[in-house]
Write a structure and sequence with these properties.
Length: about 525
């Protein structure tokens, strides 16, 4: 059976399509591709994110889907994403229905966290919740044999009487038994080239010519934070270190990445496993001559020590992060974080001592947030975070998390379909502050964040527009620039490559020093 897997369009609701780096690619689709191929099915990937000939994201997907359906004539079409991908998914289903009767199966976080509502709203032929490798293979096998899908766990389908949801079964077994993700159907090589520059600063700043690649060493999360959607799903499972090293070997041999992003959020919680990984990586780097930096995410309660971080740095680690979320103990308690701001101070100091980058997010807008708690967190930010890559963000209620349920209960969200239609465009005041107070503070905070107002400033020493054979590298009015600057902290010069448009002036670049990993704001002399 020929299966078409459709990649969500990044920032679909923007005026123009946004480039996609492999570091931001939804790895779940690559796992589905490998599972389907292993079962003998043909996989076609459609990743339209880097199609530079279109001005409009909708025109891009409409043309791209139509052309692919005409050429490939797939037997099954898979798509999905997060709740923030709703507009893309809705439009994509509409385009698909216009040109083919091939069945559509939908999955991803949008289904995992709200399957009954979304399945009835968007009406794909099937949906899968949870980890989808086994279910999509069984579905493809069943459709090929023209059998009934009633025995496939974690699958929904339609009958004349309405939607049928089969039983939920999260007994997935050992992650080491999974086939490694297959990125080949999705244009991985172009995502690793110039389009890598479109990724977030944390994933690229350590190299002038970044080629970031992501791996996931575990799935799910045992914690229960109020704003997170990892609730009530599969149990937390981690892969073995030998299995992880084998995937890294294959990826490096094939793609020669130079930045490795460990994407799961609890990598270093088990200190023994963390040290085992670092020792194995040091041995492999010496044996194979690997040349890449790497970063990881963890939890404040991981209790990292200097010895472990120094070992990680020796293994090539340049940066790590975790969720700070707030510096107000009152807010942290409301979020069910079970952490203390004092832990953050210790970690920031430890990273500085070791010479490693550190980052995270501070979230504003929890139900117990007040002007006092905002000021408490901002004071912490001013005192401790100005040299770290710590960012400010507004808390958003997503289906599957407790604060979404709170918003529904309080009448803050009254119409779920309208919620999905306006997702990303509407800000929800969950606090006890008035709407006027809330809007004032959020506007101030996002201005503070968006302009890197509290970062140490340096001036660019040189800015060069890259050209090959006299031509710019990218379309849609976007160009690649080289920016040179000398760090105020360590005195070392770095060169950064960025994708910028000439439609609006670029006055600064917020990034990290490639040598000391401190946060800097590079002023572009004369602008671009």
């Amino acid at each position: 059976m020929k299966v078409l897997l459709l990649v969500p369009t990044f920032h679909y609701k923007g005026h123009t399509a946004t480039y996609l780096s492999v570091s931001d690619f939804p790895t779940g689709l690559a796992y589905l591709a490998s599972a389907l191929k292993k079962a003998g099915h043909e996989v076609i990937g459609l990743n339209l994110n880097n199609s530079t000939r279109y001005k409009s994201a909708y025109v891009m997907i409409a043309n791209g889907i139509h052309e692919t359906l005409e050429k490939e004539k797939p037997d099954l079409i898979g798509l999905g994403g997060l709740c923030t991908d709703y507009a893309f998914i809705k439009d994509a289903i509409g385009v698909i229905r216009r040109y083919t009767k091939a069945p559509i199966v939908m999955g991803g976080g949008i289904i995992n966290n709200d399957k009954e509502f979304v399945f009835n709203l968007l009406k794909p032929d099937f949906c899968i919740w949870g980890e989808a490798e086994e279910a999509i293979v069984k579905l493809a096998d069943t459709l090929e044999k023209e059998e009934h899908p009633g025995d496939i766990d974690n699958l929904a389908y339609w009958t004349e009487s309405g939607a049928i949801f089969n039983q939920t079964n999260y007994d997935y077994g050992d992650l080491d038994d999974r086939a490694f993700p297959d990125y080949e159907p999705f244009g991985v090589k172009e995502m690793l080239n110039e389009f890598s520059l479109s990724t977030r600063v944390l994933y690229k700043y350590s190299r002038s010519h970044p080629r970031p690649m992501t791996i996931n060493t575990a799935r799910s999360c045992p914690f229960n934070c109020s704003f997170c959607v990892h609730q009530g799903g599969p149990k937390y499972r981690a892969r073995s270190i030998p299995n992880i090293m084998e995937e890294i070997r294959r990826l490096y041999r094939k793609y020669k990445f130079n930045i490795l992003i460990i994407g799961d959020e609890l990598f270093a919680v088990n200190k023994k496993r963390m040290r085992e990984f670092c020792v194995a990586l040091i041995e492999e780097r010496e044996e194979y001559g690997w040349d890449f930096d790497w970063m990881f995410q963890t939890h404040p309660n991981a209790k990292l020590d200097k010895e472990t971080l120094e070992l990680a740095k020796k293994a090539g680690c340049y940066f790590f992060s975790y969720g700070l979320e707030s510096a107000s103990q009152k807010v942290l308690q409301s979020m069910n974080k079970k952490t203390r701001p004092a832990q953050y101070v210790e970690t920031i100091a430890l990273a500085k001592e070791v010479g490693m980058g550190f980052g995270g997010n501070l979230l504003f807008g929890d139900p117990v947030e007040t002007e006092e708690t905002i000021l408490e967190t901002l004071d912490f930010f001013a005192q401790h975070c100005q040299q770290s890559l710590i960012f400010l963000a507004m808390l958003a209620p997503y289906p599957g998390c407790k604060i979404f349920d709170y918003c529904v209960e309080k009448g803050i969200i009254q119409d779920k379909e309208r919620y999905y239609e306006s997702i990303g465009d509407v800000t929800y005041n969950m606090t006890e502050m008035s709407d006027e107070q809330f809007a004032k503070w959020m506007t101030f905070l996002m201005t503070l964040e968006g302009t890197w107002m509290m970062a140490t400033s340096v001036d660019s020493t040189k800015v060069i527009e890259e050209r090959r054979n006299g031509k710019v590298l990218l379309g849609n009015g976007r160009h690649v620039y080289q920016v040179f600057a000398t760090c105020t902290f360590c005195g070392e010069e770095s060169m950064y490559r960025e994708i910028w448009s000439r439609e609006s002036p670029v006055l600064y670049l917020g990034t990290g020093c490639q040598h000391c990993h401190k946060k800097i704001k590079i002023h572009i002399k004369g602008g671009i």
